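Morning!

This is the sequence you dropped in the shared folder:
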Amino acid sequence: MQLYPSKVLPSDWDQFFDEQRHGTLPGCLQVFYGQPLIGRDQKIESTDFVAVDIESTGLDAEADDIVSIGIVPFDSKKIYLSQARHWLTRTRQLTDDSVIVHHITHSEVADAPGLAAVLPEVMASLAGKQIVVHYRYMEREFFRQAVISLFEQNWLFPVIDTLELEVRQAQRKQAWLDKALRKAHPSMRLPDVRERYHLPAYENHNALVDALATAELWQAQVSHWNIGKTDVRRWWS
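The structure's back. Tokens below.
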């Protein structure tokens, strides 16, 4: 079995999922890969999405740990907060700097389950849904490394990355003079992008709140760009 290294993705997602289904996998991965990918002609306006956010002990997916995971199911019009989930996970890598950022304390994670116990629930909640994140090199890369460490298996999936899409829009809008002067793009941090769409300010660095913020941002992008009738796969990263 080929393990995909950091930031390397399958060239054909359909083939990759089919290969995983026919492999020997732990039960949680069987559940995840057992659900079909979003169809080639599936439109945004008729798709079930789930926004995902994590908090971690640092920014290095190969060295740092996930300490919390938040997911929020939604579609292009509604957010289903009653189905939202939030998990804390045990780690020994908390530092004073990371606690300052996400406010998750040593005592909280000391009593939390290990990531191996949490992942089956997370995978079941994501299976069959189109996953949306704000900066794919956090959530997808941390999940990838976690599953490699725990099971020596791949856990990869196509995402819609609201940050990357915002960067593309900014590049298209950038005037030739700005490009010539190498003027910097506006901030792509989640709160700053949300502000440009006139979305409310939320507390930062809480996995559940940031997942909600990402869901609302994707809804705003879909509405602002009028892309509800376009194919979901067009926006994959």
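Headline: The beta strands are 49-56, 66-74, 85-88, 130-133, 159-161.

More detail when I'm at my desk.
O.
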